[in-house]
Amino acid sequence: MKMLNEYGKSLLKPWLSVQNICLALAICFVTVLLIRTYDLNKSELASWVQAFGSIGAIWGALAVSRRQITMQANADAKRAELRDGAYLAVMESACKNVRKLSEFVDGGPTLNAFLLMWDYHVGGLFESNMEILKGIPAHELGSYELVVSHSVVMTKMIRIQGVIRGLREADERYKKVQEPWVKYQYSEITGDNEVVQDALERYKVALAVKRDFMNSQT
After folding, report:
1. For labelling alongside 182, which of 3, 93, 101, 176 has CA 20 to 30 A away?
2. pTM flag (> 0.90)
């Protein structure tokens, strides 16, 4: 019942404006003026009242319809804003884990130390981020720049995952891997991280542009 009352208030509120009150007073004034000027009988008066009532009903229906359309548009915009915020959070989390990975390899850890860090700290979050990013429908992102940035982050994360898989396979197969080769793989991760962070910044800019456009339409 409370929700119904709130909805009723939201529909009634637009009617309680200065313009509507002035319009109602004007209609009453015109009606009285017509009665006095033309000496209308009851039948004629009823016809005029019916005519004014029909016009008022049409105008009221249009006003309610516009109100409902506006409310629906605002609700859709709010849902889109929440969805965009969730997608941004996923992007930021994914890029943060890529950055942590890059910062760790910058220190030149041994391959064993790196794989331990991956297994117990970053790996699970990294792969979870990837799965969530894969599940984001491209058409919901809303612009070319957002789709491209999302695709770049996904592509680089898949590539990093492949590099780590190669490091693990080499460690398991050869037990002692050449250090220069390991450092080269680390440099690949570092380079991919730079591209990922740039894509994140581009994503944020494109999202701000999208929000500004959506706000201008409401």
Report:
1. 93
2. no
